[in-house]
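User: I've been trying to design a sequence by hand for this structure and keep getting stuck. Would you show me what you'd pick, starting by listing the structure so we're on the same page?

Assistant: Good idea, let's start from the same input. This is the structure you sent:
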């Protein structure tokens, strides 16, 4: 069920990861199919006498007997890079696509998890603190949520405080340690995936640069073997290699922005979690003190 719940995020990540490549491909096709500029009509000879005006003849419809828009096959671009590249160039491009898909997938999933925690925090205010006891309030929270996990950890710490070693720790310290461990586990769960975003943001430009260097090396080698260094022989292969750098930047920038944004949202989320833990600690100690 978790896989089906995350399927929309995975599909959205795949579409956003392929967006830079599709944009480059569409742009190259548009340049290839651009019509040639119209040639200016030759100036009429002033010395030539004007001919008598003839009756207007009907103009044939467009496309009947005249060629349509001229289509020129683009020898450069992303398609040429894929077809003409070796296994290293293709492997680099595939790695960049995988990194982009992973980044967008993690960003979608983490935002969804943070939204659930915010919604659970509102439920705690409406259900948990209105209950008659901590146990009753804990049972009203949804199973598997972070706030119920913290509440159950606090209740268990007040009940299972026994044993010769544990008795050496006072109840207040024991409950505080139990709640802190539960909060730390929630914080660690929120941090999952952020390391991948940081890695992509710091390495994707260099992966794209590696593909650029590799492509330029092969382009210059082919030019040296052919013995021709004209602009049409140099511009195409070098431009195709530079596409790798553009794709690397397109992968890195969203990962860096998403990482910083998610870290900020995690801090706001953890403030709500820690506040609940502190309030729960006070309620548990107050309940024990009245006994």
């Amino acid at each position: 069920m978790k896989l089906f719940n995350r399927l929309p995020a995975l599909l959205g990540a795949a579409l956003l990861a392929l967006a830079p490549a599709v944009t480059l491909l569409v742009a190259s096709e548009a340049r290839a199919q651009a019509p040639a500029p119209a040639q200016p009509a030759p100036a009429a000879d002033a010395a030539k006498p004007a001919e008598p005006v003839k009756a207007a003849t009907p103009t044939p419809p467009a496309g009947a007997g005249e060629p349509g828009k001229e289509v020129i096959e683009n020898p450069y671009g992303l398609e040429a890079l894929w077809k003409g590249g070796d296994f290293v160039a293709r492997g680099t491009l595939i790695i960049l696509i995988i990194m982009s898909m992973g980044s967008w997938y993690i960003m979608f999933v983490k935002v969804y998890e943070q939204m659930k925690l915010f919604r659970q925090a509102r439920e705690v205010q409406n259900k948990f603190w209105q209950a008659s006891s901590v146990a009753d309030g804990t049972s009203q929270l949804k199973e598997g949520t972070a706030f119920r996990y913290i509440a159950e950890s606090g209740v268990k710490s007040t009940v299972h405080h026994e044993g010769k070693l544990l008795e050496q720790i006072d109840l207040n310290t024991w409950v505080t340690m139990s709640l802190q461990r539960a909060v730390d586990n929630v914080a660690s769960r929120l941090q999952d995936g952020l390391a991948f975003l940081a890695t992509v943001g710091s390495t994707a430009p260099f992966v794209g640069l590696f593909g650029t260097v590799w492509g330029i090396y092969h382009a210059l080698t082919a030019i040296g073997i052919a013995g021709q260094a004209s602009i049409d022989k140099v511009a195409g292969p070098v431009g195709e290699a530079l596409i790798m750098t553009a794709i690397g930047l397109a992968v890195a920038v969203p990962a860096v922005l998403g990482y910083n944004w998610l870290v900020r949202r995690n801090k706001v989320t953890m403030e709500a979690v820690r506040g609940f833990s502190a309030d729960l600690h006070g309620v548990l100690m107050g309940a024990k003190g009245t006994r």
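That's my pick for every position. To get oriented when you compare it with your attempt: Confidence is low (pLDDT under 50) at residues 34-50, 62-66. The radius of gyration is 33 Å.
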